Amino acid sequence: MSELARWRKYRWQLISGEAFDPAMQMALDEVLTYRVGRGERPPTVRFWEWTAPAVVIGRFQSLRNEVDLEEANRHGITVVRRITGGGAMLTEPGRVITYSIYAPPELVAGMSFQESYAFLDAWVVEALRVLGIDAWYQPINDITSANGKIGGAAQARRHGAVLHHTTMAYDIDPEKVPRVIRIGREKLSDKGVRSAERRVAPLRQQTNLPRETIQEFLIRTFAERHGLEEGTLRPDEIDEARELVRTKFGTWEWTAILP
Amino acid sequence: MHGEYKTPGGKLVQIDLDVVEGHLRNVRVTGDFFLEPPEALDVIAGALEGAPADASEEELAHRIARALAGFPGRVELLGFSPEAVARAARRALS
Questions:
Q1: What is the C-alpha to C-alpha distance for residues A65 and A57, in angstroms, rounded to an integer?
Q2: What molecular function terms (GO) are annotated for this protein (chain B) (predicted)?
């Protein structure tokens, strides 16, 4: 089956527009993964809007190894832990583009995990290239370009569905990141000089386009390539996510599950 | 004690542990790797718990691989391996 035929087997639904706080974003990812896994909602792509800045750490990261909590506090940055692996990232309202794909496992059947990362972000790489960025997929999970790294993805396979989410820098202040996120020397050991590794090439710098224009173009690319219908979060989905914030994603027990 | 190892082209593994009477205790494995299901993390750390502090990298990797093989259901490691965890542990011990 061709790549496009795989996508086109499903009726994709779009969720976008409404902004949520960081813990709620984590909770919505879990709820929507569940719902797609149980067949209670169609395969969905969600574009995130943030109400507040956050450091989002990976499921298996040590909180204190990764984040300078005092610095984060001082800057009013919430620290949350997501359900997918991967590394810590800084997000700020209007300064990143983040989306989640909630898909049946059959979409990536027969692929290795590593292959599925490139497959699930291929439409984005394609869109960025149309926008004039020399972008490509850098295994395992990075979208990069001739000018530097643009973003990274993470996946979880849970509850009968695949969750794949990606964050791209639109206008992140590169000097702010190392103040709150610690990057060790060992991590850079196979990546050459430190300054090169940390070179992020935000989309604003590479396109001069407003964030909304880029996001709309990504959505249009998805729609033309795979088909896409306007959708919305259901009130019961939002309620379930709020409850998960209370019992899990908003709790210190979860955020510090690996202290 | 703390040790780290980054798989070339892959992800970082960090290990924190104590040595009590010649054996590994309080082993904690963290990092920016991918692992399914997440519960398998306890199996990886648990495999090193109680290992002799003078165990070789190969022996430690074997303990982890054996424990993962006994995990009910399929476990997927992406960006790291039992060998990478064992190397981080050896670095913590040296």
A1: 11
A2: ligase activity
Q: How far apart, in whole angstroms, are the C-alpha atoms of residue B6 and residue B33?
A: 10
- The 10s digit of each residue's pLDDT in A94-115 is 999 999 999 999 999 999 999 9
Write the CB contacts of B24 (distance below 8 Å, at least 6 apart in sequence).
Answer: B17, B18, B48, B49, B50, B51, B52, B53, B89, B93
- Number of domains comprising chain B: 1
B82 interface with A at CB cutoff 8 Å: no
Interface of B with A in 4-23 (CB under 8 A): 4-6, 8-12, 14, 16
Retrieve residue A13's tokens: 């639904």
Question: Which domains are seen in chain A, by residue range?
Answer: 3-252 (3.30.930.10)
| pLDDT tens-digit map of B34-71 | 999 999 999 999 999 999 999 999 999 999 999 999 99
Distance CA A97, CA A105 (A): 25
Of A83, A158, A190, the CB nearest to B9: A190
User: Which band of pLDDT confidence, cut at 50, 70 and 90, is reported for residue A191?
Assistant: low
Which residue of B4, B32, B38 is in closest CB contact with A87?
B32
Complex ipTM value: 0.97
Name the residue range of residue B51's domain. 2-93
The two structure tokens encoding residue A186: 């060992």
pLDDT digit string, tens, across residues A166-177: 999 999 887 788
CB contact under 8 A, B30 and A61: yes
- Quick one: pLDDT band at residue A194, thresholds 50, 70, 90? very low
The answer to whether A100 and A82 are in contact (CB under 8 A) is no
Name the residue with tokens 């309202």: A93
